[in-house]
């Protein structure tokens, strides 16, 4: 029976739930497997489907803290997000249910199925397609997006707490398989999240995965960690039990604080716990009322300013142009909206942390849809929707009062930009990662090319990986030029 996903999320006040094996069809672990201490069936390393890679990004023995943030936790899910391994996942569902979700992917209907993984079957689980307009572009049979699946690969979500709210898979409630349909190099998301984490920003872990559906190889996917209550508990040293909001900005297009109803609609944790919104409401209210001179104190009161500016530096240097800085608008209109981020609110201090999400437009130089064609801290443009051919209308990022306040942190921004250029955003840092990951996924790019007519071909993929390297060098050169330019004079936007 299909179920339309309400994006149900766990209450983070629940105690941590140990990883459990879910009962499926009773299939036993296959030969060459062993049972771990936490009760999961795992493949022995000497029987891995893919051999060991060079030790480029070692899994830390202990969590890696950056102040109050743990960027690479060591937890039950570490096995799933092991950078040295590429694993196979098989989804099993009835032909009728597969045909049902294939007929209307945009409905995001869950159907019941099972997951087979390393000799063990887990189930029942919920299975559905996932994505937005961009992820489905060219893969739906009708232009309005209401039609049937027409591509081999679409992003998918697997929900383990489908019937049993306590069920987990290596500590996880959900797996997210991203199709990378807009990235022929198939490396952008993994590299983008790696750069955020390397620079101390809380961000999902990501690896590649091979996906089989009902016995047939479907393709190579990015397996990206779900941002939920488990994520916040693993990342924030104060406990991570506060509110988590998806795509909730603290102020609207006019600079007014958001309502509690707006925040409740975007709340992803603690929904059933009579939540309060002290942090987001307080931050929004103070932003609304602040003069230009007061804005720095507002930022320091409600956020870790150093940490937030690290997010700004990585986001803007890597040109994550479909994230928080892209304010979609209609031509001539003052209202605008952004997406692809989360905010986490600490429960005791009400301090807020921004978390990146959906990086398939990262390292952007030429996307017709998502390109932000003016500098993020440029205040010379009018605050209405503007278009520049061939790009659709957008509103200048600095028209938002919060981003305008960030733009005034020029010295801090430039100091962190210099650190980013000397750290993860240098060729000596990223090239070993890219080379290792490229070697890791090469057999499966070829497998997809030989299996599916609409797959990225091996020559196309090789060309795209070279193009990605070129983009990185171009973006590094642009960042170096911005650093040499020095502090900008930030014009008035919100005089009070």
Protein architecture, described:
The protein is an alpha+beta fold. The protein folds into two domains: 3-234, no CATH class; 239-423, no CATH class. 29% of the residues lie in helices and 19% in strands. The chain is built from twelve helices and 19 strands. Strands 6-7-8-9-10-12-11 form a seven-stranded mixed barrel. Strands 15-14-19-18 form a four-stranded antiparallel beta sheet, with no helix packed on it. The longest helix is centred in the C-terminal third of the chain and has 28 residues, at 458-485. The protein is globular and about 60 Å long. Residues 5-65 have low confidence and may be disordered.
Sum this structure up briefly.
The chain is an alpha+beta fold and 496 residues long.
Overall number of domains: 2
Find the structural class using helix and strand composition. alpha+beta
Largest sheet: 7 strands, mixed, barrel
The helical percent reads 25-40%
Keywords:
4-stranded antiparallel beta sheet, 496 residues
What layout of secondary structure does this protein have?
Elements: E1 3-4, E2 33-35, E3 41-43, E4 64-66, E5 69-72, E6 87-92, H1 95-103, E7 109-117, E8 120-129, H2 133-136, E9 156-159, E10 174-178, H3 188-198, E11 206-213, E12 216-224, H4 229-235, E13 243-246, H5 260-265, H6 278-289, H7 295-302, H8 305-317, E14 327-329, E15 336-337, E16 341-345, E17 352-356, E18 386-388, E19 391-395, H9 401-407, H10 410-422, H11 427-451, H12 458-485
Parallel strand pairs: 6-11
Antiparallel strand pairs: 1-7, 2-3, 4-5, 6-7, 7-8, 8-9, 9-10, 10-12, 11-12, 13-16, 14-15, 14-19, 16-17, 18-19
Helix pairs in contact: 6-7, 8-10, 10-12, 11-12
């Amino acid at each position: 029976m299909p179920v339309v996903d309400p994006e149900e999320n766990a209450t983070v006040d629940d105690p941590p739930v140990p990883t459990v094996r879910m009962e499926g069809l009773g299939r036993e672990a296959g030969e060459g497997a062993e049972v771990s201490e936490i009760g999961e069936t795992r493949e022995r390393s000497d029987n891995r489907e893919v051999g060991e890679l060079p030790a480029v990004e070692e899994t830390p023995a202990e969590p890696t803290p950056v102040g109050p943030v743990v960027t690479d936790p060591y937890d039950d899910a570490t096995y799933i997000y092991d950078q040295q391994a590429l694993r196979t996942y098989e989804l099993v569902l009835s032909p009728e249910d597969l045909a049902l979700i294939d007929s209307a992917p945009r409905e995001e209907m869950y159907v019941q199925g099972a997951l087979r993984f390393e000799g063990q079957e887990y189930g029942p689980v919920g299975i559905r397609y996932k994505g937005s307009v961009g992820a489905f572009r060219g893969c739906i049979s009708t232009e309005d997006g209401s039609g049937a699946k027409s591509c081999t690969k679409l992003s998918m979500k697997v929900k383990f707490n489908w019937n049993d709210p306590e069920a987990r898979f290596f500590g996880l409630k959900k797996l997210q398989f991203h199709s990378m349909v807009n990235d022929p190099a198939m490396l952008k998301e993994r590299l983008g999240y790696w750069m955020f984490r390397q620079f101390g920003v809380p961000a999902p872990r990501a690896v590649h995965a091979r996906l089989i559906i009902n016995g047939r190889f479907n393709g190579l996917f990015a397996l990206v960690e779900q941002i939920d209550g488990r994520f916040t508990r693993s990342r924030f040293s104060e406990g991570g039990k506060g509110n988590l909001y998806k795509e909730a900005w603290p102020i609207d297009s006019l600079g007014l604080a958001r309502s509690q109803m707006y925040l409740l609609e975007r709340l992803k944790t603690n929904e059933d716990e009579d939540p309060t919104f002290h942090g987001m409401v307080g931050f929004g209210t103070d932003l609304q009322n602040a003069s230009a001179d007061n804005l720095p104190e507002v930022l320091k009161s409600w956020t870790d300013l150093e940490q937030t500016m690290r997010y700004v530096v990585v986001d803007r240097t890597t040109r994550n142009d479909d994230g928080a800085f892209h304010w979609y608008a209609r031509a001539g209109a003052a209202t605008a909206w952004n997406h692809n981020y989360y905010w986490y609110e600490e429960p005791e201090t009400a301090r807020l942390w921004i978390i990146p999400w959906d990086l398939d437009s990262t390292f952007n130089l030429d996307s017709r849809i998502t390109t932000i064609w003016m500098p993020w801290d440029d205040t010379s443009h009018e605050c209405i929707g503007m278009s520049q051919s061939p790009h659709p209308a957008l509103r200048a990022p600095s028209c938002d009062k919060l981003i305008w306040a960030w733009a005034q942190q020029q010295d801090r921004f430039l100091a962190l930009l210099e650190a980013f250029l000397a750290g993860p955003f240098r060729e000596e840092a990223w090239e070993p990662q890219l080379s290792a990951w490229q070697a890791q996924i090469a057999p499966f790019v070829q497998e997809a090319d030989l299996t599916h007519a609409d797959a990225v071909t091996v020559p196309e993929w090789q060309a795209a990986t070279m193009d990605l390297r070129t983009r990185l060098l171009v973006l590094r050169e642009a960042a170096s030029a911005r650093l040499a330019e020095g502090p900008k004079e930030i014009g008035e936007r919100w005089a009070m």
